[in-house]
Write a structure and sequence with these properties.
The chain is about 40% helix and about 20% strand. By secondary structure, the chain is α+β, with helices and mostly antiparallel strands. The protein has a seven-stranded mixed β-sheet with strand order 1-4-5-9-8-7-6, sandwiched between helices. The chain has a two-stranded antiparallel ribbon with strand order 2-3. It binds adenosine-5'-[phenylalaninyl-phosphate] (FA5).
Amino acid sequence: MLSWEVIEEIKKTALNELENITSERDWVELKAKYLGKKGKLQDLLKMLPTVSQEERKSLGSQVNEVKDLLENLFSDKLQEIKLSLKKQKIFEKKVDITLPSKRYSRTGRVHPLNRVTSEILDIFSSLGFEVEEGPEIEEDYYNFEALNIPKEHPARDMQDTFYIDESRLLRTHTSPVQIRVMEKRQPPLMVVCPGKVYRRDSDVTHSPMFHQIEGFMVDKEVSFSHLKGVLTEFLQAFFGKEKNVRFRPSYFPFTEPSAEVDIECVVCEGKGCRVCKGSGWLEVLGCGMIHPYLFSVVGYDKSVYSGFAFGLGVERLTMLKYAIDDIRLFYEGNVSFLEQL
Ligand code: FA5
């Protein structure tokens, strides 16, 4: 017979049993026993029609209260069981904190081109040069016209250009930085300008994007011997004291006279091989005495000042120093190649 005492008794035993379970499996079984479709509380509800009309309401709500209470307590109990299992697992898992940590063999490092650029800049700063930079998107005026290469001048073909519009382009060399620096500063100047340059050019020794370092010096009485002295000093510091250096006449519209500089072949030591095409020499940079036209453009008095300038390819020097035969290797992100250098 359904009564207040019967309901209380079921509640008491349920709480008691719930208190004593420790596994999820017991929890599932116990929950079915009391709260399942065929559980004890459902049985109590089924008994409601057997009691008098007056008692039915209060006993019905008592059963429902017990049901709500048990549902809450069952869900708390499940959390408690899960937490204690987790703690148990952590406790059982023994960690040996004296073991050495994992070592990562592939740590990042400076890209060879950046390393060689720093090496080159260090040599020039030890000779007294300062570093200046200029924009990669350049005006036609700075890249060509101010450097004595007017429109339609055949020398524009020496550097096949990526144009952005009529007056702007991706700079084809770092020489425009000469003009930008001279425009804003007065001599004496000893400056090097590193940076990316772009040309429509692509094969194993030419890349559409590559790096140059420009250098120039302007003062009173700067002569070709200063140019020879600085570049020989630089090349021997970079490639080794014993390497011979030679200057060959050449042509650049922004220098007069102009020269190309060769270094004794790093592979065959001047005997002649495949790399130097049998000549024993490797071309490394272009240079010359700054053309007086540039001084008139920037407003320097050409009867007072003279200067020299040079431009070198960083990839070219790195390839020669480390005997690399394909320029594209620098940009492929191949870790084993980069680790070798
Ligand atoms: C020039 O760019 C001149 N501005 C250099 C200069 C400066 C001369 C000041 C006189 C006074 P040239 O086009 O030769 O010159 O390029 C210089 C160097 O850049 C070359 O010796 C070569 O090492 C490198 N170079 C040229 N084109 C490429 C390319 N497509 N990929 C990689 N390196 C290149």
